[in-house]
Amino acid sequence: MLYGRSQWGEDRTLLPLLLDATKGGPGVFVELGALDGDTYSNTIMLERCFNWTGVLIEANPFNFAKLRNSGRRAALVHSAVCVGIPSISMTLQGGPAAGDVRKLSKRQKRHFNLNQTVTIPCKSLVDIMADAGFHSAQFLSLDVEGAEDLVLEAADPSAFDLVMVETEGKTNGTKQRVHTLLSQAGLQPLRGLAVQLELHGPGKFGLANLQTMQPICTR
């Protein structure tokens, strides 16, 4: 089975940048919205093929139950990420679109039964990483259904070399706050990835000439 799992091939496209950041050695990732650890994962190829480690964070209890049985070697954390409040309310229904009720779009609210929610404790990303033994990482993958700006407010974006934020379907306000928070941390927008993403990294990184790589690792 091929290990490229990203929805739009982002893992293979970004691989040269990530390997350059670690000089070809193993690195550290943090993936928020880890789902079941396999479906649409932006980090499983790094773990299985290049011996990276890191932290997989999933707030929805049904998704996390699947994540625990995924065989992933990274630290698995069942938590929301926020600062200043002890918990959030999120949709009980699992799947890729499970999210923080406060930040769901009108389309998502029509789709979900919002009478069925669950309270999830939350911590800052800084604390979650420290608990897992990490204070920095080469790669942050962030897809939490509209709450990306709230996560970054509870994080230290400067702790990452490359930050990829899913922006498809997000409001312009959320996109602008994400852009501002990353730019304030010294991370510059990177252009050339033809998917709905906000991608930031050091100025030395450039995507314009990258081509999507073919699968290079199999089970």
TrEMBL record:
Domain Methyltransferase FkbM: 32-168
Highest taxon, organism lineage: Eukaryota
Pfam families in UniProt: Methyltransf_21
GO cellular component terms listed in the entry, alphabetical order: endoplasmic reticulum membrane; Golgi apparatus; late endosome membrane; plasma membrane
InterPro entries: EGF_Rcpt_Signaling_Reg, FkbM_mtfrase, SAM-dependent_MTases_sf
GO process annotations (BP): endoplasmic reticulum to Golgi vesicle-mediated transport; endosomal transport
Listed NCBIfam families: fkbM_fam
Name of the featured protein: Methyltransferase FkbM domain-containing protein
Species assigned in the record: Prymnesium parvum
